[in-house]
Design goal:
Length: about 350
Amino acid sequence: MNIDEALRQERLDPRLVPSDIADTNPWFLIMERDLTLLCQNALSAPVSFTFNVSHSIQAGVLYRSNLVVMTAGMFNVLCRASSRVVTSGAFINFDGGVEPEWTPNAESSFKPIISDLSSTAFNWNIESEPWQKSGERQLLFFYILQTLTRFVVLHELGHVAHNHGARFQGGGSSFVDIDLAQPDLLSDEDGIASQAREIIADNFAFIRLKQIQDKELSFKAETEAAALLTNKLLQGEQERIRFLLTAVYLYFHIMDRHDWYSVDIFRLTHPPAPFRLKNLFALTLEKGIDNLSEDEIGEMLMQQFYVCNALSSVAYNHYPNLDLFKEVGTPRFNKLFNALYEEYPKWQLLSN
Ligand SMILES: [Zn+2]
């Protein structure tokens, strides 16, 4: 089945042809190639990849046709988030930055950032203007965008690898798993099952992302870009993991409902962003880092919490929330944690 037919079968919008919009955003073309290769090679059986023209902000997997789809809306948001980070002046090691400007106010701090990031399609020529002449800043943009898009796609592949599509075989109305900004609430039972699948997909994506990063850095060590990244951003094992945690948190933060403080958390489709980050911290601790003791990793993660918070505050121009982890450590979240722990075996294939 070709991609157009597969999209039609699930009543989704048609494929986006990246060359059609290369004038305003050439990154569709570049990332379509990258993500297609990723999908071809990540699992034992190849999966296809496409962008589609939808403006909604989502990525998903079509199980009947083995196809991962990212909407143009989602890609535009990831481009804009990457460009905000590069423009914010963060990552000061990279030449061509400007003085960070930070003017948070109550209004910008309490509304979901997604509406701001998705107001218009990303325009590369206009939005990269402050740093387009700096090769180093362009590389930083590319690397953040590549990391974000790869995480999103690997997360979808995590659903495939753990066979989450099997539950659709019973003849359900949908054959699609969707990761959507601001989804609806579910029943308690469905919420726990859904959140367990999401955490499993996150873990799969994070582990694979790290493996790919290691492989590429050693394989491309001689190239100018890899040498620059290794010098300025990814000096050692710690820095590499920290960069991935930072980038992935930007994504969690974008997709967060931001109203979970006041809703029944058992009914969410995805755990809140700080809960997802905390889960990746636990995974990092469990996997270990070369030459670091458990206490040292704990210390590193503590600092990383502040880095994630600071970067999202500067990039999205809102106040930091240093109580993020405190909020997801309250008794109702401990109850959620325990319920998920019991749910994981149902959705996990141990061969992955
Ligand atoms: Zn998912």
